[in-house]
Amino acid sequence: MTMLTPRTPAKLAPPGRSRRERKAAELETRTRLVGERLAGISAAPGIRALQCVDASLGGLTRAEAALRLERHGANVVAQERAPRWYVQLAKAFCNPFIAVLVLLAAVMYGQDPADPGVVILSVMVGISGLLRFWQEYRSGRAADALKRLVTTTCAVRRRAGSGSVPTTVEVPMDQVVPGDVVKLAAGDLIPADLRILSAKDLMISQAALSGESLPVAKADTRARDLGQQATTDPVEADNLALMGTSVTSGTATGVVVATGSDSYFGSMAGSLVGERPQTNFDAGVRKVSFLLIRFMLVMVPVVFVINGLTKGDWDEALLFGVAVAVGLTPEMLPMVVSANLARGAVAMSRRKVVVKRLDAIQNLGAMDVLCTDKTGTLTEDRIALDRYLDVHGDEDGEVLEYGYLNAHFQTGLRNLMDQAVIDRVGEAEEVVVDTRFSMVDEIPFDFARRRMSVVLARNPLLGGSGPGEHVMITKGAVEEVLDLCTHMTDRGETVELTEQLRWHVTRIAEDNNRRGLRVLAVATRTVATPRDTYSVADEDGLTLVGFLAFLDPPKADAARALEGLADKGIAVKVVTGDNGLVAARVCADVGLDVGTVVLGPETDALDDTELRALAARTTVFAKANPVQKARIVRALQADGHTVGFLGDGINDAAALRDADVGISVDTAVDIARESADIILLEKDLTVLEQGVLQGRTTFGNTIKYIKMTASSNFGNVFSVLVASAFIPFQPMLAIMLLVQNLVYDIAQLATPWDRMDEEYLRRPRNWDAKGIGRFMVTIGPISSIFDIAMFLIMWHVFAADSVASQSLFQSGWFVEGLLSQTLVVHMIRTRKIPFIQSRASWPVMVTTVLAVLTGLWLPFSPLAPSLGFVALPASYFPWLIGVLLAYCTLTQLVKTWYIRRFGTWL
Known about the structure:
By secondary structure, the chain is an alpha/beta fold. Helices cover 49% and strands 15% of the residues. It contains 31 helices and 24 strands. The strands form three sheets. Strands 1, 2, 3, 4, 5, 6, 7 and 8 form an eight-stranded mixed β-sheet that branches. Strands 9-24-23-22-10-19-21-20 form an eight-stranded mixed β-sheet, with helices on both faces. Strands 11, 12, 13, 14, 15, 16, 17 and 18 form an eight-stranded mixed β-sheet that branches. A hairpin with a 7-residue loop joins strand 12 (437-443) and strand 13 (451-458). The longest helix has 42 residues, at 685-726. It is elongated and about 125 Å long. Mean pLDDT is 81; it is low at 1-16, 146-151 and 223-228.
């Protein structure tokens, strides 16, 4: 009864590691402990399993079931629960950019509670946070709506009391307890970890746990002492059915040996809740935030000191210093980022993609390695008959005909391979077959024989060689069928199956196995003395006809989709739980360069450095368990890659969570959907390719805003720094600086709707704080050259050279500064020649034109006196046009040099 005690290991990973490493170690330890316990149960006879859980074949009484439910808790696994709306709302404001703006607003409020800048910053912060919250909240609700179970109840034997007759009742899955005796049928979801007690033609799909595309046969092997090989992996045990898998055909009875977090599935789920690891987006935002803060910490004190020393008014100098800090900060950045991501999420939703976490859109664009499972992504997630071969490996219609007869006439539940044979032949053949043959008897499939036979009577009028002639058709595992064969059909003739020929046909089957196909043998026997019933003993003296080979066929568009991802700079690596031969075959069929297939257990012997090197040069990983999949993802990340993971099984959950962007599908198991950042409503790499382009567009427009605003603001502050040292008055009032930034930033709200050049979308894009800093100090001072030129023009041409005429000076620089900032939007948004080789989208064109008109209007508007403006003379505007044309020309020349020098622009 020790196995019934709920286990909650205190701390399964040693201290001194990162949280991520501790989680990985805990997952590995939990899974290993549960696996060892289940392997021990598998190794013992079924009656021993019943004794261990203190149960009987008659099932538990209702009172016992209630006590065990109270002791062990509901049969549910740990799940990632969405936070309450108010927690989600608070998290939407936890952003380094927002923190900078809040700090500036607090300083401004401390100086002057009536300062309009406080309201402006507060509105920007509010809109940004609310936009992010609403989009993620809405996406979370959409993801929750996808949750559905195949079934919510299961058939369990229960008794009213100790002396009562057991009856089969349907109970909710979360009320199944250890010791329950469960009855399984085709289509059932396995409710808990079961030790199988009896089975008939039982086939179970374990794809969600192991990634294996084909169903596997299960039976009570130990109870009948069939010599099952001992295994430490419960997924490979022939007499265990694990929670999360499902029955594809057959029936069985099993006893529950583990539920909830004590199950194999639960051991994985328990370590997957809590704080997520930092992604590429998180690291990039943090670096850019600190870059802007560093610039601010350097520039603002310098401006403050110079203004205080030259003007003598330290209070005004402090106010101007704060205005410079605001001017240097891209205060619309949180809002533009949120608007960009939200627009990307809406665009992706039209392509049947649900974005649960907005940050994942940028990570999708930055992704340069996609790790994916095989089943359903590269393949059609169905079993198809690929070939029907004679004993020499050549295609032979007679083999297909016999295989079809065997599948068509069996009376039991057809498995997926039987259905694949029938689908290959088509409906029209059924009418012909039913007129040529009639069913006499069948010898059903069982786990010991691994074959099944039908006995048919030929209609003597339609091809029979004698009255009432019977023919036995046997189909099954190659080794078992060959053992019963004494002859084989060789190009229409029956010849004795000698040892040499037996070796030859075995090699044909093995060659197809090595190609990743599952092979069944087909043999026949003409019965000399027909009778009404047949037994296993009659399966003897068979004639081998040939082989049927099956596979999960590649999707028709998989090769094109992979080629499209490669063109976008994304390397695809297949990380599957399926066997290496199948994985290699499928990957080769879709055009991947397979190379050497690495099996999951091989990675266990490698340290992190060795695994990094191996992961870099390997395309296909097979037989990988959940811990190994997650470790491969972390190794690729440690090598500097932004990694996406596409999976839908229980065994994918840990890797989905560790990846920079976890991608799943709406048909995935619950834990995979909960671990994912993005959910595809269609498991299609073509849809994913479109998502990548949307992610890069989103990121590109965000970087546009940062580089435009940061470089422009840096140039303005640099200009202020120069002017403060030589001009006896402030070159621009604090309120003017705030209005200039406000008009400019409002114009930038259209940035999320801008288009990106095709060249930009061809390769992954990442945050580059160092590159942004270099861009600021290279491009920003260009505007300062022309700001200083305007200073000289206003000073010498228009005699704005005294405190009395400072309003004219300030108005002239305000207009030039705003228009140059606005025009440079079109210079920076593309590496091409603006307006000629690349044009902005119409929303950007409209907002920039409005910003220019606003700048020209303000000095002449009714607001001018309150803002400190005066009307500009008509002779000012030719000078303005000349300065702006020279500015655009120099910027284009510097851009060309910058691209040649650094190989990048945005």
